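fwd from M.: "can u put these together and see what the complex looks like"

so here's what she sent:
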Amino acid sequence: MNEEYFARHIKERLDDSLELGPAAAERLRAARERALARHRGPGAARLVMGGGAATLGSGSHGSLHVLTRIILPAAIVLAALFGFNEWQQQQREALLSVDPATAEAADEDASVLKSDLPLDAYLDKGFRAWLQSPPDDSGNSPSEAPSGEPAEASSADASSPAQQQ
Amino acid sequence: MPARADDDSGPTWIQLKPDQQRVLAPLHDDWSNLDGTRKRKWIAIANRYPQLSADEQSRVQRRMKEWASLTPEQRANARDFYRDLEKLTPEEKQTVREKWEAYQQLPEDKRRQFATSAAGAPEAGPLAPVDSAASAPK
């Protein structure tokens, strides 16, 4: 309680007696400026000297530092990564591209693969020979089941698909 | 910048797009053994795969591995047979499917006989040769 009273008393006395002349005020201002300039370093001092850039100078040293030391290198690295990724993508597309001749051949293979005629039928040379054979050659007409059950084909195509065209 | 070197081994499995990997999954284990041309054929098939019907997709999936394991000669014969079948009308193609069922009911020795005769022939003839049609019994 006494301390607070004492401090207030001193403050009032000081305020009452604070009368600085213009020269003293100017010296104090100049000293403050010098101290601030020293604190900011030479780069900041130059910017402060530049006059109009003073506002920029007060905080620009840190910003410039961040720009040149962090943002710029990061942007370069990002651009390089992006370029590399693009290049990789192009390489991949080229690798996966199919020329027209291969695509056409692939279409034919796909037709066999998706066909409702079993793959075994395509691979069975005997079946193909049987289809091509006249019925009297084999004794088992390709158009008739061995049990004698007639195929649904008409008599016009009773021998084989060879005669159907 | 050519992406395909002279020793064309084609894309590796991990270079395939996820959709292509999904379609070509039956070939995963054999992929590295395929040459570049065959890989690109499969890629083309995978690219067209979404346009197939569900039944066709199912058949392609089931046959993929077997087709890849065939010899080049077997595949060439199958393609050749397919080209012959393509000349037929849809009704005739349907008949061929029925005849396949009938053929499978032939006795084993009979089928072997046809297979042997086909193997002995220099080249399998077309399904509808003009002279064959002319000599066909009525």
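replying to her w this: Chain B touches chain A through 80 residues (CB under 8 Å).
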